[in-house]
Specification:
single chain, 559 residues, alpha/beta, two-stranded antiparallel ribbon, 12% strand, disordered N terminus
Length: 559
Amino acid sequence: MHASQIPQSSGGVHKLRHQPTANFEQYYSPYHVVNNNSSDASSSGTQLSYQTQNENFFTLDSLPDAGYVSYDSPPAVSVSSNWSPFSPQCSQSYISDQHHSSDNTYGSPLSGCSVINDGNELKHVLREMANNLLGPGFDIDEDSSCSFNGEVSKPSKWNRVLEIAPSLDMKELLLACAEAISDVEVTARDAQMNVLEKKVSDADVTARDALMNVLEQKVSVSGEPMQRLSAYMLEGLKARIYSSGSNIYKMLKCKEPTGSELISYMQVLYHICPYYRFAYTSANVVIEEAMRNESRIHIIDFQIAQGSQWVFLMKNLAHWPGGPPSVHITGVDDSQSAHARGGGLHLVGERLAKAAESCGVPFEFHAAAISGCEVQLENLQIRHGEALAVNFPYMLHHMPDESVTTANHRDRLLRLVKSLSPKIVTLVEQESNTNTSAFLPRFRETLDYYTAMFESIDAGRPGDDKQRINAEAHCVARDIVNIIACEGADRVERHEVFGKWSMRLRMAGFTPCPLSPSVGEAINGVLKEFSPNYRIAENKGALYLGWKNRALATSSAWR
Protein backbone atom coordinates (compact mmCIF):
# COMPACT_ATOMS: atom_id res chain seq x y z
CA MET A 1 0.00 0.00 0.00
CA HIS A 2 1.34 3.40 -0.92
CA ALA A 3 1.62 6.17 1.63
CA SER A 4 -1.29 8.02 0.08
CA GLN A 5 -3.54 5.06 0.76
CA ILE A 6 -2.75 4.93 4.45
CA PRO A 7 -5.26 6.79 6.64
CA GLN A 8 -3.67 10.01 7.77
CA SER A 9 -3.29 10.79 11.45
CA SER A 10 -2.63 14.10 13.06
CA GLY A 11 -0.11 12.35 15.27
CA GLY A 12 1.15 9.99 12.60
CA VAL A 13 4.75 9.31 11.83
CA HIS A 14 4.31 10.14 8.18
CA LYS A 15 2.85 13.56 9.00
CA LEU A 16 6.01 14.84 10.70
CA ARG A 17 8.07 17.43 8.91
CA HIS A 18 11.84 17.40 8.92
CA GLN A 19 13.46 20.43 10.47
CA PRO A 20 17.05 21.16 9.50
CA THR A 21 19.30 21.54 12.51
CA ALA A 22 22.94 22.00 13.34
CA ASN A 23 25.80 20.08 11.77
CA PHE A 24 26.78 16.80 13.36
CA GLU A 25 29.24 16.36 16.18
CA GLN A 26 31.94 13.78 15.89
CA TYR A 27 30.82 11.46 18.64
CA TYR A 28 27.58 9.99 17.37
CA SER A 29 26.81 6.56 16.02
CA PRO A 30 23.42 5.32 14.79
CA TYR A 31 21.58 3.59 17.58
CA HIS A 32 18.17 2.00 17.55
CA VAL A 33 16.78 3.03 20.86
CA VAL A 34 15.09 0.36 22.71
CA ASN A 35 13.71 -2.75 27.53
CA ASN A 36 13.63 -5.51 30.08
CA ASN A 37 11.46 -8.48 30.32
CA SER A 38 11.34 -12.08 31.16
CA SER A 39 13.15 -13.73 33.99
CA ASP A 40 15.30 -16.34 35.56
CA ALA A 41 13.85 -17.91 38.66
CA SER A 42 17.30 -18.52 39.99
CA SER A 43 17.67 -14.80 40.63
CA SER A 44 16.16 -15.24 44.07
CA GLY A 45 19.41 -15.65 45.96
CA THR A 46 21.86 -13.78 43.81
CA GLN A 47 24.00 -10.89 44.86
CA LEU A 48 22.83 -7.71 43.22
CA SER A 49 24.56 -4.33 43.15
CA TYR A 50 22.47 -1.19 42.91
CA GLN A 51 23.67 2.27 42.11
CA THR A 52 22.49 5.68 41.09
CA GLN A 53 24.85 8.34 39.91
CA ASN A 54 25.06 9.96 43.35
CA GLU A 55 25.51 6.73 45.31
CA ASN A 56 28.29 4.32 46.03
CA PHE A 57 27.81 0.66 45.15
CA PHE A 58 26.08 -1.44 47.74
CA THR A 59 25.13 -5.09 47.72
CA LEU A 60 22.10 -7.17 48.61
CA ASP A 61 23.13 -10.60 49.83
CA SER A 62 19.71 -11.95 48.96
CA LEU A 63 16.46 -10.61 47.59
CA PRO A 64 13.74 -9.71 50.08
CA ASP A 65 10.48 -11.59 50.03
CA ALA A 66 8.62 -8.32 49.84
CA GLY A 67 9.09 -4.60 50.22
CA TYR A 68 11.12 -2.07 48.32
CA VAL A 69 14.73 -1.07 48.01
CA SER A 70 15.06 2.57 48.96
CA TYR A 71 16.58 5.07 46.55
CA ASP A 72 17.20 8.78 46.56
CA SER A 73 14.62 9.29 43.87
CA PRO A 74 11.59 11.57 43.71
CA PRO A 75 8.44 10.35 45.47
CA ALA A 76 6.59 10.41 42.16
CA VAL A 77 8.56 7.46 40.80
CA SER A 78 6.20 5.04 39.12
CA VAL A 79 6.45 1.37 39.94
CA SER A 80 6.74 -0.81 36.86
CA SER A 81 5.23 -4.25 36.74
CA ASN A 82 8.59 -5.50 35.53
CA TRP A 83 10.95 -7.12 37.98
CA SER A 84 14.38 -5.64 37.63
CA PRO A 85 17.27 -4.55 39.82
CA PHE A 86 15.21 -1.45 40.30
CA SER A 87 12.04 -3.24 41.51
CA PRO A 88 13.14 -6.34 43.45
CA GLN A 89 9.78 -6.71 45.15
CA CYS A 90 8.44 -8.67 42.19
CA SER A 91 10.83 -11.59 42.45
CA GLN A 92 8.72 -13.89 44.57
CA SER A 93 5.57 -13.48 42.54
CA TYR A 94 7.46 -14.39 39.41
CA ILE A 95 9.09 -17.44 40.90
CA SER A 96 5.75 -18.80 42.02
CA ASP A 97 4.07 -18.17 38.68
CA GLN A 98 3.60 -21.55 37.00
CA HIS A 99 1.84 -20.05 34.00
CA HIS A 100 4.77 -17.98 32.81
CA SER A 101 5.23 -17.73 29.07
CA SER A 102 7.66 -20.26 27.69
CA ASP A 103 8.97 -17.50 25.46
CA ASN A 104 10.51 -15.91 28.54
CA THR A 105 12.17 -19.01 29.96
CA TYR A 106 15.63 -17.63 29.37
CA GLY A 107 14.91 -14.05 30.27
CA SER A 108 16.87 -11.57 32.25
CA PRO A 109 17.78 -12.57 35.81
CA LEU A 110 16.91 -9.02 36.72
CA SER A 111 13.39 -9.04 35.41
CA GLY A 112 10.38 -11.14 36.07
CA CYS A 113 6.92 -9.68 36.57
CA SER A 114 6.99 -8.23 33.12
CA VAL A 115 4.06 -6.79 31.26
CA ILE A 116 4.79 -9.15 28.42
CA ASN A 117 4.55 -12.04 30.85
CA ASP A 118 1.20 -10.93 32.21
CA GLY A 119 -1.08 -12.14 29.45
CA ASN A 120 -4.07 -11.18 31.60
CA GLU A 121 -3.29 -7.46 31.85
CA LEU A 122 -6.03 -6.31 29.51
CA LYS A 123 -8.36 -8.86 31.05
CA HIS A 124 -7.76 -7.20 34.43
CA VAL A 125 -8.29 -3.77 32.86
CA LEU A 126 -11.55 -4.83 31.28
CA ARG A 127 -12.73 -6.55 34.44
CA GLU A 128 -12.05 -3.45 36.51
CA MET A 129 -13.75 -1.24 33.94
CA ALA A 130 -16.72 -3.59 33.79
CA ASN A 131 -17.12 -3.81 37.55
CA ASN A 132 -16.70 -0.10 38.15
CA LEU A 133 -18.69 1.25 35.25
CA LEU A 134 -21.00 -1.54 34.09
CA GLY A 135 -21.72 -3.26 37.38
CA PRO A 136 -20.42 -6.45 39.00
CA GLY A 137 -22.60 -8.68 36.82
CA PHE A 138 -20.23 -8.32 33.90
CA ASP A 139 -17.19 -10.38 34.74
CA ILE A 140 -14.38 -11.58 32.50
CA ASP A 141 -14.37 -15.20 31.50
CA GLU A 142 -11.09 -16.71 32.64
CA ASP A 143 -11.21 -19.32 29.89
CA SER A 144 -11.45 -16.92 26.97
CA SER A 145 -9.55 -13.91 25.80
CA CYS A 146 -11.19 -10.97 27.55
CA SER A 147 -14.76 -12.13 26.94
CA PHE A 148 -17.57 -11.41 29.36
CA ASN A 149 -19.37 -14.18 31.26
CA GLY A 150 -23.02 -14.94 30.89
CA GLU A 151 -24.99 -14.21 27.79
CA VAL A 152 -22.92 -11.22 26.73
CA SER A 153 -21.50 -11.85 23.24
CA LYS A 154 -18.14 -10.60 21.97
CA PRO A 155 -19.69 -7.74 19.93
CA SER A 156 -21.62 -6.71 23.06
CA LYS A 157 -18.42 -6.77 25.04
CA TRP A 158 -16.75 -4.33 22.70
CA ASN A 159 -19.87 -2.19 22.51
CA ARG A 160 -19.82 -1.85 26.27
CA VAL A 161 -16.11 -1.04 26.24
CA LEU A 162 -16.86 1.63 23.65
CA GLU A 163 -19.39 3.20 26.00
CA ILE A 164 -16.69 3.83 28.59
CA ALA A 165 -13.84 4.41 26.14
CA PRO A 166 -13.83 8.24 26.46
CA SER A 167 -13.12 7.88 30.19
CA LEU A 168 -10.15 5.53 29.74
CA ASP A 169 -6.57 6.71 29.91
CA MET A 170 -4.26 6.24 26.95
CA LYS A 171 -2.62 3.07 28.21
CA GLU A 172 -6.02 1.44 28.71
CA LEU A 173 -7.10 2.58 25.26
CA LEU A 174 -3.93 1.27 23.63
CA LEU A 175 -4.38 -2.12 25.29
CA ALA A 176 -8.05 -2.23 24.31
CA CYS A 177 -7.19 -1.34 20.69
CA ALA A 178 -4.53 -4.02 20.54
CA GLU A 179 -6.90 -6.61 22.02
CA ALA A 180 -9.60 -5.67 19.53
CA ILE A 181 -7.15 -5.97 16.64
CA SER A 182 -5.96 -9.32 17.98
CA ASP A 183 -9.57 -10.57 18.19
CA VAL A 184 -10.18 -9.70 14.55
CA GLU A 185 -6.89 -11.26 13.43
CA VAL A 186 -7.44 -14.49 15.36
CA THR A 187 -10.99 -14.86 14.04
CA ALA A 188 -9.85 -14.20 10.48
CA ARG A 189 -6.96 -16.64 10.77
CA ASP A 190 -9.12 -19.37 12.28
CA ALA A 191 -11.76 -18.87 9.62
CA GLN A 192 -9.14 -19.14 6.90
CA MET A 193 -7.90 -22.38 8.42
CA ASN A 194 -11.49 -23.66 8.74
CA VAL A 195 -11.15 -23.84 12.51
CA LEU A 196 -14.24 -21.67 12.85
CA GLU A 197 -17.23 -21.49 10.59
CA LYS A 198 -17.98 -17.86 11.35
CA LYS A 199 -16.17 -14.95 9.77
CA VAL A 200 -14.99 -11.67 11.21
CA SER A 201 -18.08 -9.70 12.20
CA ASP A 202 -18.71 -6.13 11.16
CA ALA A 203 -19.30 -5.34 14.83
CA ASP A 204 -15.77 -6.41 15.76
CA VAL A 205 -14.25 -4.30 13.00
CA THR A 206 -16.44 -1.33 13.89
CA ALA A 207 -15.47 -1.58 17.55
CA ARG A 208 -11.81 -1.81 16.66
CA ASP A 209 -11.94 1.28 14.46
CA ALA A 210 -14.06 3.22 16.95
CA LEU A 211 -11.60 2.57 19.78
CA MET A 212 -8.75 3.79 17.60
CA ASN A 213 -10.71 6.92 16.73
CA VAL A 214 -11.15 7.66 20.44
CA LEU A 215 -7.44 7.17 21.00
CA GLU A 216 -6.54 9.41 18.08
CA GLN A 217 -8.28 12.34 19.75
CA LYS A 218 -5.92 12.07 22.71
CA VAL A 219 -2.48 11.58 21.15
CA SER A 220 0.07 14.25 20.26
CA VAL A 221 3.71 14.12 19.14
CA SER A 222 4.32 17.31 21.11
CA GLY A 223 2.49 16.40 24.32
CA GLU A 224 3.30 14.44 27.44
CA PRO A 225 5.43 11.28 27.12
CA MET A 226 2.40 8.98 27.04
CA GLN A 227 0.69 11.14 24.41
CA ARG A 228 3.76 11.02 22.19
CA LEU A 229 4.30 7.30 22.59
CA SER A 230 0.62 6.65 21.95
CA ALA A 231 0.81 8.61 18.69
CA TYR A 232 3.54 6.34 17.35
CA MET A 233 1.97 3.14 18.68
CA LEU A 234 -1.34 4.13 17.09
CA GLU A 235 0.50 4.59 13.81
CA GLY A 236 1.88 1.09 14.20
CA LEU A 237 -1.59 -0.30 14.83
CA LYS A 238 -2.95 1.42 11.71
CA ALA A 239 -0.10 0.05 9.65
CA ARG A 240 -0.80 -3.43 10.96
CA ILE A 241 -4.52 -3.23 10.16
CA TYR A 242 -3.90 -2.15 6.59
CA SER A 243 -1.10 -4.70 6.16
CA SER A 244 1.23 -1.85 5.38
CA GLY A 245 3.74 -2.23 8.17
CA SER A 246 6.69 -3.00 5.94
CA ASN A 247 5.64 -0.26 3.51
CA ILE A 248 5.49 2.34 6.26
CA TYR A 249 8.84 1.16 7.60
CA LYS A 250 10.44 1.44 4.18
CA MET A 251 8.68 4.72 3.53
CA LEU A 252 10.08 6.17 6.73
CA LYS A 253 13.56 5.13 5.66
CA CYS A 254 13.07 6.73 2.25
CA LYS A 255 11.83 9.94 3.82
CA GLU A 256 14.77 10.27 6.16
CA PRO A 257 16.39 13.68 6.29
CA THR A 258 19.81 14.37 4.89
CA GLY A 259 22.78 12.80 6.58
CA SER A 260 23.72 15.94 8.48
CA GLU A 261 20.13 16.37 9.67
CA LEU A 262 19.92 12.77 10.84
CA ILE A 263 23.18 13.11 12.74
CA SER A 264 21.83 16.27 14.37
CA TYR A 265 18.79 14.31 15.60
CA MET A 266 21.08 11.63 16.99
CA GLN A 267 23.04 14.41 18.61
CA VAL A 268 19.91 15.51 20.45
CA LEU A 269 19.48 12.02 21.90
CA TYR A 270 23.18 11.86 22.71
CA HIS A 271 22.89 14.97 24.84
CA ILE A 272 19.58 14.24 26.59
CA CYS A 273 19.90 10.53 27.41
CA PRO A 274 22.90 8.24 28.10
CA TYR A 275 22.15 5.22 25.91
CA TYR A 276 24.83 5.91 23.30
CA ARG A 277 27.50 6.64 25.85
CA PHE A 278 26.56 3.64 27.99
CA ALA A 279 27.38 1.45 24.99
CA TYR A 280 30.74 2.78 23.93
CA THR A 281 32.01 3.75 27.38
CA SER A 282 31.40 0.31 28.89
CA ALA A 283 32.85 -1.48 25.85
CA ASN A 284 35.95 0.73 25.76
CA VAL A 285 36.76 0.06 29.42
CA VAL A 286 36.39 -3.69 28.91
CA ILE A 287 38.50 -3.75 25.74
CA GLU A 288 41.27 -1.59 27.17
CA GLU A 289 41.55 -3.75 30.27
CA ALA A 290 41.57 -6.98 28.24
CA MET A 291 44.30 -5.69 25.90
CA ARG A 292 46.50 -4.16 28.57
CA ASN A 293 49.64 -6.22 27.78
CA GLU A 294 49.16 -6.52 24.02
CA SER A 295 51.32 -4.76 21.45
CA ARG A 296 49.09 -5.46 18.42
CA ILE A 297 45.31 -5.08 18.66
CA HIS A 298 42.64 -5.88 16.09
CA ILE A 299 39.11 -4.59 16.79
CA ILE A 300 36.15 -5.78 14.71
CA ASP A 301 33.23 -3.38 15.13
CA PHE A 302 29.97 -4.77 13.77
CA GLN A 303 28.29 -1.34 13.97
CA ILE A 304 31.12 1.03 13.10
CA ALA A 305 28.81 3.99 12.29
CA GLN A 306 30.92 7.16 12.60
CA GLY A 307 33.74 5.36 14.43
CA SER A 308 33.64 7.89 17.25
CA GLN A 309 33.92 5.23 19.95
CA TRP A 310 37.46 4.39 18.84
CA VAL A 311 38.64 8.00 18.89
CA PHE A 312 38.18 7.96 22.64
CA LEU A 313 39.82 4.55 23.03
CA MET A 314 42.91 5.59 21.07
CA LYS A 315 43.30 8.66 23.27
CA ASN A 316 43.46 6.32 26.25
CA LEU A 317 45.84 3.89 24.52
CA ALA A 318 48.21 6.76 23.78
CA HIS A 319 48.94 7.05 27.50
CA TRP A 320 49.87 3.42 28.09
CA PRO A 321 53.21 2.95 29.89
CA GLY A 322 55.80 1.96 27.33
CA GLY A 323 53.86 3.45 24.46
CA PRO A 324 50.63 2.63 22.66
CA PRO A 325 49.96 -0.63 20.81
CA SER A 326 49.35 -0.74 17.09
CA VAL A 327 45.61 -0.70 16.34
CA HIS A 328 43.92 -2.43 13.42
CA ILE A 329 40.17 -1.75 13.13
CA THR A 330 37.76 -3.59 10.86
CA GLY A 331 34.52 -1.66 10.47
CA VAL A 332 31.33 -3.40 9.33
CA ASP A 333 28.91 -1.01 7.67
CA ASP A 334 25.13 -0.65 7.69
CA SER A 335 22.91 1.38 5.39
CA GLN A 336 21.72 3.83 8.03
CA SER A 337 25.29 4.67 9.04
CA ALA A 338 26.28 5.21 5.42
CA HIS A 339 23.32 7.56 4.96
CA ALA A 340 24.17 9.50 8.11
CA ARG A 341 27.80 9.81 7.09
CA GLY A 342 26.93 10.94 3.62
CA GLY A 343 29.43 8.46 2.20
CA GLY A 344 31.18 5.13 2.51
CA LEU A 345 33.45 3.62 5.13
CA HIS A 346 36.49 5.39 3.71
CA LEU A 347 35.24 8.48 5.57
CA VAL A 348 35.44 6.59 8.86
CA GLY A 349 38.90 5.31 8.02
CA GLU A 350 40.17 8.78 7.19
CA ARG A 351 38.77 10.25 10.36
CA LEU A 352 40.19 7.52 12.59
CA ALA A 353 43.58 7.74 10.86
CA LYS A 354 43.76 11.45 11.68
CA ALA A 355 42.76 10.80 15.28
CA ALA A 356 45.36 8.06 15.61
CA GLU A 357 48.08 10.24 14.12
CA SER A 358 47.28 13.04 16.55
CA CYS A 359 47.59 10.57 19.43
CA GLY A 360 50.72 8.86 18.13
CA VAL A 361 48.96 5.50 17.81
CA PRO A 362 50.03 3.22 14.90
CA PHE A 363 46.81 2.60 13.01
CA GLU A 364 45.27 0.69 10.11
CA PHE A 365 41.64 0.54 8.98
CA HIS A 366 39.85 -2.16 7.01
CA ALA A 367 36.39 -1.55 5.55
CA ALA A 368 33.80 -4.34 5.37
CA ALA A 369 30.92 -2.60 3.62
CA ILE A 370 28.37 -5.39 4.12
CA SER A 371 25.60 -6.19 6.54
CA GLY A 372 26.12 -8.54 9.45
CA CYS A 373 24.06 -11.19 7.67
CA GLU A 374 26.60 -11.26 4.84
CA VAL A 375 29.80 -11.33 6.90
CA GLN A 376 32.10 -14.27 6.23
CA LEU A 377 35.58 -15.06 7.51
CA GLU A 378 37.30 -13.61 4.45
CA ASN A 379 35.67 -10.20 5.11
CA LEU A 380 37.36 -9.72 8.48
CA GLN A 381 41.10 -9.62 7.63
CA ILE A 382 42.20 -11.79 10.54
CA ARG A 383 45.97 -11.79 11.09
CA HIS A 384 48.21 -13.99 13.17
CA GLY A 385 49.74 -12.23 16.15
CA GLU A 386 46.98 -9.66 16.64
CA ALA A 387 44.94 -9.83 19.84
CA LEU A 388 41.32 -9.73 18.71
CA ALA A 389 38.44 -7.78 20.26
CA VAL A 390 34.93 -7.92 18.80
CA ASN A 391 32.29 -5.28 19.49
CA PHE A 392 28.53 -5.83 19.09
CA PRO A 393 26.90 -2.46 19.93
CA TYR A 394 23.09 -2.62 19.63
CA MET A 395 23.28 -4.66 16.43
CA LEU A 396 22.77 -8.38 17.05
CA HIS A 397 19.02 -7.90 17.52
CA HIS A 398 18.85 -6.97 13.84
CA MET A 399 20.22 -10.37 12.85
CA PRO A 400 17.35 -12.76 11.98
CA ASP A 401 17.39 -15.93 14.07
CA GLU A 402 15.96 -19.42 13.67
CA SER A 403 12.40 -18.12 14.02
CA VAL A 404 12.82 -16.07 10.82
CA THR A 405 15.10 -18.09 8.59
CA THR A 406 16.83 -21.45 8.61
CA ALA A 407 20.07 -19.55 7.94
CA ASN A 408 19.83 -18.24 11.54
CA HIS A 409 22.33 -15.43 11.03
CA ARG A 410 22.16 -14.46 14.70
CA ASP A 411 23.73 -17.70 15.90
CA ARG A 412 25.81 -18.16 12.74
CA LEU A 413 27.56 -14.84 13.36
CA LEU A 414 28.27 -15.74 16.99
CA ARG A 415 29.75 -19.09 15.97
CA LEU A 416 31.88 -17.37 13.33
CA VAL A 417 33.25 -14.93 15.89
CA LYS A 418 33.95 -17.73 18.36
CA SER A 419 35.97 -19.55 15.70
CA LEU A 420 38.30 -16.53 15.56
CA SER A 421 39.33 -17.08 19.22
CA PRO A 422 38.83 -13.45 20.28
CA LYS A 423 40.44 -12.30 23.49
CA ILE A 424 37.31 -10.32 24.37
CA VAL A 425 33.81 -9.78 22.95
CA THR A 426 31.61 -6.90 24.10
CA LEU A 427 27.83 -7.06 23.77
CA VAL A 428 25.49 -4.13 24.38
CA GLU A 429 21.78 -4.67 23.75
CA GLN A 430 18.39 -3.27 24.62
CA GLU A 431 16.82 -5.20 27.47
CA SER A 432 13.58 -6.10 25.76
CA ASN A 433 11.74 -9.23 24.68
CA THR A 434 10.14 -8.71 21.27
CA ASN A 435 11.81 -11.34 19.13
CA THR A 436 9.46 -14.33 19.02
CA SER A 437 6.49 -12.99 20.97
CA ALA A 438 3.06 -13.00 19.35
CA PHE A 439 1.47 -9.65 18.52
CA LEU A 440 -0.45 -9.01 21.73
CA PRO A 441 2.30 -9.76 24.30
CA ARG A 442 4.78 -7.99 22.03
CA PHE A 443 2.54 -4.93 22.03
CA ARG A 444 2.36 -4.96 25.84
CA GLU A 445 6.12 -5.28 26.08
CA THR A 446 6.66 -2.42 23.64
CA LEU A 447 4.25 -0.22 25.56
CA ASP A 448 5.96 -0.93 28.86
CA TYR A 449 9.47 -0.45 27.54
CA TYR A 450 8.92 2.71 25.53
CA THR A 451 6.89 4.30 28.31
CA ALA A 452 10.12 4.36 30.32
CA MET A 453 12.10 5.41 27.25
CA PHE A 454 9.87 8.38 26.47
CA GLU A 455 9.83 9.47 30.10
CA SER A 456 13.63 9.46 30.10
CA ILE A 457 13.77 11.50 26.89
CA ASP A 458 11.25 13.95 28.34
CA ALA A 459 13.56 14.56 31.31
CA GLY A 460 16.11 16.04 28.91
CA ARG A 461 13.88 18.11 26.64
CA PRO A 462 10.28 19.40 27.00
CA GLY A 463 7.53 17.80 24.93
CA ASP A 464 7.11 20.67 22.49
CA ASP A 465 10.82 20.92 21.65
CA LYS A 466 11.10 20.71 17.84
CA GLN A 467 14.47 18.96 17.85
CA ARG A 468 13.22 16.36 20.32
CA ILE A 469 10.16 15.73 18.15
CA ASN A 470 12.42 15.10 15.15
CA ALA A 471 14.78 12.94 17.19
CA GLU A 472 11.94 10.74 18.41
CA ALA A 473 10.39 10.52 14.95
CA HIS A 474 13.58 9.56 13.13
CA CYS A 475 15.49 7.61 15.79
CA VAL A 476 12.73 5.94 17.85
CA ALA A 477 9.30 5.95 16.17
CA ARG A 478 10.36 3.91 13.15
CA ASP A 479 11.42 1.08 15.43
CA ILE A 480 8.10 1.18 17.29
CA VAL A 481 6.15 0.94 14.04
CA ASN A 482 8.28 -1.97 12.91
CA ILE A 483 7.83 -3.92 16.15
CA ILE A 484 4.05 -3.49 16.16
CA ALA A 485 3.14 -3.61 12.47
CA CYS A 486 5.54 -6.05 10.85
CA GLU A 487 5.92 -9.81 10.91
CA GLY A 488 8.36 -12.31 9.46
CA ALA A 489 11.43 -11.00 7.68
CA ASP A 490 9.94 -7.48 7.57
CA ARG A 491 10.22 -7.22 11.37
CA VAL A 492 13.88 -6.33 11.89
CA GLU A 493 13.62 -5.03 15.45
CA ARG A 494 13.88 -8.35 17.32
CA HIS A 495 15.17 -7.70 20.81
CA GLU A 496 15.99 -10.29 23.42
CA VAL A 497 16.67 -9.98 27.14
CA PHE A 498 20.11 -10.63 28.55
CA GLY A 499 19.20 -14.12 29.76
CA LYS A 500 18.48 -15.18 26.19
CA TRP A 501 21.63 -13.54 24.83
CA SER A 502 23.57 -15.34 27.53
CA MET A 503 22.17 -18.68 26.40
CA ARG A 504 22.99 -17.98 22.75
CA LEU A 505 26.56 -16.98 23.58
CA ARG A 506 27.11 -20.02 25.79
CA MET A 507 25.73 -22.33 23.12
CA ALA A 508 28.19 -20.76 20.67
CA GLY A 509 31.02 -21.67 23.05
CA PHE A 510 31.58 -18.35 24.85
CA THR A 511 32.09 -17.93 28.58
CA PRO A 512 31.19 -14.73 30.46
CA CYS A 513 33.89 -12.35 31.66
CA PRO A 514 33.14 -10.60 34.96
CA LEU A 515 33.10 -6.82 34.62
CA SER A 516 35.63 -4.98 36.72
CA PRO A 517 34.54 -2.15 39.07
CA SER A 518 36.07 0.27 36.57
CA VAL A 519 33.18 -0.31 34.17
CA GLY A 520 30.55 0.70 36.72
CA GLU A 521 32.66 3.65 37.82
CA ALA A 522 32.98 4.88 34.23
CA ILE A 523 29.23 4.63 33.62
CA ASN A 524 28.55 6.26 36.96
CA GLY A 525 30.64 9.18 35.77
CA VAL A 526 28.60 9.41 32.58
CA LEU A 527 25.31 9.39 34.50
CA LYS A 528 26.33 12.43 36.54
CA GLU A 529 25.37 14.49 33.50
CA PHE A 530 21.81 13.13 33.41
CA SER A 531 18.69 12.77 35.53
CA PRO A 532 19.04 10.99 38.90
CA ASN A 533 16.28 8.65 37.72
CA TYR A 534 18.88 6.80 35.66
CA ARG A 535 20.54 4.02 37.58
CA ILE A 536 22.79 1.05 37.07
CA ALA A 537 22.86 -2.43 38.59
CA GLU A 538 25.12 -5.40 38.12
CA ASN A 539 23.99 -9.01 38.07
CA LYS A 540 25.47 -12.25 36.73
CA GLY A 541 28.22 -10.46 34.88
CA ALA A 542 26.05 -7.89 33.11
CA LEU A 543 25.72 -4.19 33.81
CA TYR A 544 22.15 -2.93 33.52
CA LEU A 545 21.17 0.65 32.71
CA GLY A 546 17.67 1.56 33.82
CA TRP A 547 15.21 4.41 34.08
CA LYS A 548 13.47 4.37 37.48
CA ASN A 549 12.21 0.79 37.83
CA ARG A 550 12.78 -0.33 34.26
CA ALA A 551 15.98 -1.86 32.84
CA LEU A 552 16.57 -0.54 29.32
CA ALA A 553 19.99 -1.81 28.23
CA THR A 554 22.71 -4.25 29.26
CA SER A 555 26.44 -4.44 28.71
CA SER A 556 28.43 -7.65 29.07
CA ALA A 557 31.78 -9.18 28.12
CA TRP A 558 32.60 -12.65 26.78
CA ARG A 559 35.52 -14.73 25.60
